[in-house]
Structure formats: structure tokens, C-alpha cells
Design a protein that fits this description.
Elements (H helix, E strand, L loop, with lengths): L3 E4 L2 E4 L2 E2 H8 L3 E5 H14 L5 E6 L6 H10 L2 E4 L2 H9 L7 E3 L6 H10 L3 E4 L2 H13 L4 E8 L21 E2 L3 H9 L4 E7 L9 H22 L4 E3 L16 H11 L6 E4 L3 H4 L3 E12 L4 E5 L8 H5 L5 E3 L12 E6 L8 E8 L7 E4 L20 E6 L2 E6 L4 H5 L7
Parallel strand pairs: 4-20, 5-6, 5-13, 6-7, 7-8, 8-9, 9-10, 9-11, 11-12, 12-13, 15-17
Antiparallel strand pairs: 1-2, 2-3, 4-14, 14-15, 14-19, 16-19, 17-18, 20-21
The structure holds ligand LLP.
Catalytic activity: meso-2,6-diaminopimelate + H(+) = L-lysine + CO2
Pathway: Amino-acid biosynthesis; L-lysine biosynthesis via DAP pathway; L-lysine from DL-2,6-diaminopimelate: step 1/1
Enzyme class: lyase
């Protein structure tokens, strides 16, 4: 697990003692490593050497302003899916000229904000969306730069909830309608047709799905070039997986090289939209064990983090490695035991680990849930009126608070008390 090591029996993440972080910032706490984020981003950049490529970080994976600012500083652009993400990018100094706006359901307000910002590209997913975008752009005397999001009908072989490139999924335009969409786009006054793209799913650990999609992409690129004469942008999507438990995905560098070798259009800017593979392994969720209880079947470790803080286990049966802050919690004398790590939320689905061999935690122990830098905090909610966790970035060898723990006043701040 990148970033983790035991020093004198005490778990460290990116050089910082996990127990000390928990004592200083309290738990539940998300901790990110600037160094690890940077390393992953740079692996993408190495893979892109010698080609026209723009890496657009998928903001949905982790939208903290400090994370966005860090990536913007390294040269990344952004893949956004809402007006909220656009707003965050603007606040974090992300250049609009590197922003691509994806998503099946853009509202007028969101489209107008993006037009105003003069973003690089709108990734359009339907004929109706294209018409609407054209009308709104034309109204303000603009032509919106568009990439048609195609559905390549490729099986990403990932969890069905995060597979997006099949006919059965709501995403993209059927690739059989490609030519017709190109013709239609050219009749619209507010559209500057600039390319096309695809995205087949997330947490792909095998390149074969990516290769299949790229081969289809290559075919479409030739058709686009035939009709349009030039192909400014080809968006190869995101989706590269990471190691949660034994998976062996390629490094970003290898993956990018492989895809670029298939998409051999040197004049075209190839976009990649990685989220998870940049931030996923660079984050951990720290939690404190509140109580332990045992029945005939197993042990329940009840901690102060819950499904509202990290929903991936409940939603996708996701696996996150669990590391005790004290190394001696696992030893020959103290073997792993069958158990669940659960939170305080009143739902049976509120577990962070179920039926797993876990360290025999004791009350007040700190545990780290690894590989939670992507789709962790961003999917947190206030269910059970639980304030969302704080976030810390380890930067320049020091932990820096990058989001305060939500307060009780913050919980109710948008409510109107009709008394
Ligand atoms: N581009 C598009 C159009 C996407 O829909 C997504 C992810 C990405 C890029 C970034 O994919 P990544 O590189 O992060 O795999 N909440 C789920 C993941 C949902 C992904 C949705 N789309 C999870 O926790 O596993």
C-alpha cells in the first residue's frame, strides 16, 4: 500500500504518525498525500511524452479546492459534471481553457455558466442536449466547442454501477448514430464541432476494455476526419483502476502509452479524464474504535466513521484495506479475527468492512481505511445528522488542514425554521 509504513510499531502515512494526526485533528478524518497525488499525475505526463495530450482530472473523484489547486499547478485540466464543479475549478485557479464539461443532464444555468467561462469543450450526450446548447450559445453570439460523447458498446467488466459504455447504460450517443450526429451538429448555428469521445467505466484493471474502446475510437476518428477534415479533440475518458485488494492494473504511464499507440493521430489533442487513478491511493480515512462487541458468530468493531463518511463498501461492496495504528494489534499472539467494522448509523448496510479478518481492535484504537482518496469525502452525506469529516493534506512534510470538520451550525445553516 503506497504511503503506509510502520515506524517503531506506529503506523505512518506519508511520513506522518496516524495516531498523532488523529489526536491533532480528531476523527473521522480524511488524509491525503500531496506527494502521492503528484507522483500519479506525473506518471500520466510521462506516458504522454511527445504527443498532444491534455490530462483532465475528473473532479468528481475528489473536489477539495487544495487538491484542484495542486493539480492545476502541475498542468492538469479538469473534467467536470456540474455547475458546482465548475465553480470549484474557478475558485481553485483551474484555467477554463482546460475544462471539459461531461454529463447527461446539463441544466440551462450550468450551460450558461460554462459558456460564460469559455471552457475548452462540452461533451454532449444527446441530440436534444446539442440543440439546447446551440440555442443558448447562439443567443449570446457564441459557438460552443463540442465533443460528441459516443457509447462504444464495450464491456468494461467492472461493477455494473460504474460501467458506462454499454448500450444498456444511459451514457453517450449510440455509435451507430455517429455520422448522423456529425451532420446534424454542422447545421446548428451555436455549435463548433471539435471532436468526439467515450468513457466506458471506472476501476478498470485490465487494459483490454480500454483497447477495445480505443480501436472503436480509431474507427470513429477516421470517419470524423473524412467528414470534417480535422479532428481537434479525441477524449479517451477516464477509468483506470487502482489496487484495492490484489488487483494489478497498469501504471498510468503504460496505459497512456498503449492507448496513444492505438489513437495515432498526432495532430489531435487526446484527452484523458482520470480521477481515481490520481487520487485514490493517495488518501486514507482515519477512524477511532468506539466499542467492541462479540456474539457467537463474530466480532463487531464499532467506529466513529460510517456509511455517510465512506459509502463505497455499502454501495458497491467495495473493499478497503484496514490498518491498525498500532502494529502490535496484529501478531502471532493476536491473530486476525472474523468481524465487521461498522459505524454508528442506524442501517444494517452501515459497514466499512463485512465478514473480514480484522485486527483485534480495542476501545480507542485508531484504524486507517486505505485507498479512500477517490470517491470518499465527495460522496459523504449528512445522514443521521452527522457532520462531514475534516480533510488534511500532507504537504511539504507537514499536515495541513484543507477542510474544517463540519460544525453543528453548518449542518442546519441552509434551513428555514418556520416557527
Ligand atoms: N470521465 C467520465 C465521463 C466519468 O463518468 C468518470 C467517472 C470519469 C471520467 C472518471 O473515472 P475514474 O478515472 O475515476 O475511474 N463512485 C464510484 C465511481 C463512479 C465513477 C463515475 N464516472 C466509485 O466509488 O467507485
Amino acid at each position: 500500500l503506497p504511503g503506509f509504513e510502520y515506524l517503531n510499531g506506529d503506523l505512518h502515512f506519508d511520513g506522518q504518525s496516524v495516531s498523532k494526526l488523529a489526536a491533532q485533528f480528531k476523527t473521522p478524518l480524511y488524509v491525503y498525500s500531496e506527494r502521492l497525488i503528484q507522483e500519479r499525475y506525473e506518471s500520466y505526463v510521462r506516458g504522454a511524452a511527445g504527443r498532444r495530450v491534455q490530462i483532465c482530472f475528473a473532479v468528481k473523484a475528489n473536489s477539495n479546492l487544495s487538491v484542484l489547486r495542486l493539480l492545476a499547478g502541475l498542468g492538469a485540466g479538469a473534467d467536470i459534471v456540474s455547475g458546482g464543479e465548475l465553480y470549484r475549478c474557478q475558485k481553485a485557479g483551474m484555467p477554463s481553457s482546460k475544462i471539459v464539461f461531461s454529463g447527461v443532464g446539463k441544466t440551462d444555468d450550468e450551460i450558461e455558466a460554462a459558456l460564460q467561462a469559455q471552457i475548452m469543450l462540452f461533451s454532449v450526450e444527446s441530440a436534444e442536449e446539442l440543440n439546447r446548447l446551440s440555442a443558448l450559445a447562439a443567443r449570446s453570439g457564441q459557438r460552443a466547442p463540442v465533443s460528441l460523447r459516443m457509447n462504444p458498446d464495450v464491456d468494461a467488466k467492472t461493477h455494473p454501477y460504474i460501467s458506462t459504455g454499454l448500450k444498456a447504460n444511459k451514457f453517450g450517443i449510440p455509435y451507430t448514430e455517429f455520422d448522423a450526429m456529425i451532420d446534424h451538429a454542422q447545421t446548428l448555428p451555436g455549435i463548433e464541432l471539435s471532436g468526439f469521445g467515450y468513457h466506458i467505466g471506472s476501476q478498470l484493471t485490465d487494459v483490454s476494455g480500454f483497447e477495445e474502446a480505443a480501436l472503436r475510437g480509431k474507427e470513429l476518428a477516421r470517419r470524423f476526419l473524412e467528414k470534417m477534415g480535422k479532428l481537434p479533440f479525441l477524449d479517451a475518458g477516464g477509468g483506470l483502476g487502482i489496487r484495492y485488494k490484489g488487483e494489478a492494473p497498469p501504471e498510468p504511464e503504460q496505459y497512456v502509452r498503449r492507448i496513444l499507440s492505438i489513437l495515432d493521430f498526432p495532430e489531435t489533442t487526446i484527452l484523458f479524464e482520470p480521477g481515481r487513478s490520481i487520487v485514490g491511493s493517495a488518501g486514507a480515512l482515519l477512524t477511532t474504535i468506539l466499542f467492541r462487541k462479540e456474539n457467537e458468530e463474530k466480532t463487531f468493531y464499532i467506529c466513529d466513521a460510517a456509511m455517510n463518511d465512506l459509502i463505497r463498501p455499502a454501495l458497491y461492496s467495495a473493499y478497503h484495506e484496514i490498518l491498525p495504528a498500532r502494529e502490535d494489534r496484529v501478531s502471532d499472539r493476536n491473530p486476525l479475527r472474523r468481524g465487521d467494522l461498522v459505524g454508528p448509523v442506524c442501517e444494517t448496510g452501515d459497514f466499512l468492512a463485512r465478514d473480514r479478518d480484522l485486527p483485534h481492535f480495542e476501545q480507542s484504537d485508531i484504524a486507517a481505511l486505505a485507498t479512500t482518496g477517490a470517491y470518499g469525502f465527495v460522496m459523504a452525506s449528512n445522514y443521521n445528522s452527522r457532520p462531514r469529516p475534516a480533510e488534511v493534506m500532507i504537504a511539504g512534510g507537514k499536515p495541513v488542514l484543507i477542510r474544517r470538520r463540519e460544525t453543528l451550525d453548518g449542518l442546519i445553516s441552509a434551513e428555514l425554521d418556520l416557527s
